[in-house]
Amino acid sequence: MDDKYVKILFRFYSDVLEDWTVETMWAEIVNLEEGLYKLDNIPFFASVSSEDIVYAEFDDDDEMLTYSKTVVHSGNSTIQVVIMDENIATEELRVLFNSLGCDSEKFNEKYFVIEVSQRVNYNPIREKLIELEKQGIIGYAESNLAENHCY
């Protein structure tokens, strides 16, 4: 990453991990003096979405920028997916959601996150998530659901 990007630390309780955890994300500097940054990747655990503009301050203990709050929501949503069926490959599901207009990031063979862009209709994606959950294939959480994706 070049000098217009920084890493921001997120510290939070994860329901998925059932523990306090940290995650770092890349962000583009929006206004350094005001502490504003635009997130540049899909979070695995933090309840934010890419392109959100966040406020972060330098933390002396952690020796890095640390998330304080979301200032402007991007309209993108983040969905966490846990694969429950051992016979289903992560890539197979990622391709399925990609065909519905969603980007995703793989954490491991049993967990990935989906980003629903603000320009994408969430209803067919949500219907597919519900269907897969009823079939016992996945479990999912809407970790950061944008207003335009609420049902």
* Total discrete domains: 2
CATH topology of the largest domain: Alpha-Beta Plaits
CATH architecture of the largest domain: 2-Layer Sandwich
- Based on CA inertia axes, which overall geometry fits? globular
Question: Could you state the order of secondary-structure elements as H and E?
Answer: EEEEEEHEEHE
Share in β-strands: over 45%
Per DSSP E runs of 2 or more residues, the count of β-strands stands at 9
Return the structural class: alpha+beta
First-to-last CA distance: 37 Å
Radius of gyration: 16 Å
Percent helix, as a range, is 10-25%
Mean pLDDT: 93
CATH superfamily of the largest domain: RRM (RNA recognition motif) domain
Largest sheet, spatial ordering of strands: 1-2-3-4-5
Q: Give the number of helices.
A: 2
Low-pLDDT segments, ≥5 res:
none
Biggest β-sheet, characterized?
A: 5 strands, mixed, barrel
Pfam families: DUF4265
Protein name: DUF4265 domain-containing protein
